[in-house]
Each structure stands twice: as C-alpha cells, then as structure tokens.
Design brief:
Radius of gyration: 28 Å
Distance between the termini: 77 Å
CATH topology of the largest domain: Immunoglobulin-like
Oligomer: single chain
Strand content: 35-45%
Number of domains: 2
CATH architecture of the largest domain: Sandwich
Number of helices: 2
Helix content: 25-40%
Order of helices and strands: HHEEEEEEEEEEE
Number of strands: 11
Length: about 200
C-alpha cells in the first residue's frame, strides 16, 4: 500500500484554507462596494429612498390634509386648469442654493373664449426660515408653455412648504373667476451639485 505523507495532506488543506480566506477577504469588500455604488446610482437617477424624517413629514401632511408635492405630481387637478410639476430640483452651488420648480399647463387652448391662470407663491418656507418674496406665474390662451420659478435659498436649507394662490379666469358664457388658496408641502427634492 502506498502511504501518503501527512505533510502533503496538511499542505493541501492549508492551500484550500488560504484560498477560502482570500476569496472571503476580497469578496466581502467588493460586494459592499457594489451595494454602495448601486445605491448611489439608484438614488441619483430615481430619487432617494424615503428616510425616517420624510416618513414623519408625509404622516404630518396627511394628518393636516396638506398635499405632499413631488416631481410628476399634478397641482389643482380638481380644476379646469391643472398644472404638472414637471421639474423640482435643488441646485447646489458653492456660494448659494437654488430651488427650481417648473410647471406645465395640462389644458388645451380654447380660441372661443379668453381664459388664463395666475399662480402666486406668497412665501416659501425652508427648514429654518420663511422667504416672503412673491413669485408669480401667468398662463393665457397664447402662452401655454412651461414656466419656471427660482428661489435663492440660504446655504444648507431645503424647501419645506409654500402657500399658493391660484386664480383662473374664464370669459365666456360661464364668465367668472375662481380663487383657490392652498398650502403645499414638498416631498423629495433631488439635489444637483454645480460648479
């Protein structure tokens, strides 16, 4: 009978042990980096995952019946002149932060009557202060293009909510003016770093 020396068996088992430890030692950090990278990519392209603070804000909004507005939502959908929140973003520059909101009308122009919408943002509230500057957007039959409003925010501040007055006018057999005052709270606002 052939006898295998014990040192050969032990050296084979040592080689396997070293291989397993190398795979574990290199594999685990690589997996962690892949998960981190995929999380960053998905957060950048699809918005960040809801955090505990966002959950609390949405619960508060629901209790107080304040709509939580995110990109892609429709404002004033219960009227004849709804508006799409086409873009909602925070541009971060080294010396200032800009909150940009682009709205797009979702109604077709009607040449038989004169109609229009005036949207006034009375104030925007950030995490620590209220910006009392009014922002006004106006749409008429002839100007149904997307409109953008911009606020310069204090560095480090994110938008929380805004008070909005919506006024629509229609000049036809149903002549009239509709005034609506609403308070909106902002959901996730994607941030983009600029140079």
């Amino acid at each position: 009978m052939d006898q295998v020396p014990q040192s050969s068996n032990q050296s084979d088992s040592n080689k396997w042990l070293v291989r397993i430890l190398l795979i574990i030692g290199i594999g685990i950090p690589v997996l962690i980096e892949l998960f981190t990278f995929s999380g960053l990519v998905s957060s950048h392209f699809f918005g960040e995952a809801p955090s505990a603070t966002n959950d609390r804000r949405s619960e508060t909004s629901a209790k107080e019946n304040i709509p939580l507005v995110k990109q892609g939502d429709t404002l004033f959908s219960d009227t004849d002149y709804p508006l799409l929140v086409d873009t909602l973003r925070l541009e971060i520059y080294p010396d200032q932060w800009r909150f940009i909101m682009e709205l797009k009308p979702l109604w077709k122009p009607n040449r038989e009557r004169s109609e229009g919408v005036k949207l006034t943002f009375q104030n925007l509230v950030t995490q620590q202060q209220s910006l009392e500057e009014n922002r006004v957007l106006v749409w008429t039959d002839n100007t149904l293009d997307e409109a953008e409003i911009t606020w310069i925010l204090p560095t480090g501040q994110r938008p929380q909510n805004a008070k909005v007055t919506y006024r629509s006018t229609r000049q036809d057999s149903l002549t009239g003016t509709l005034d609506i005052k609403r308070h909106f709270e902002f959901g996730h606002v994607p941030a983009r770093y600029k140079q």
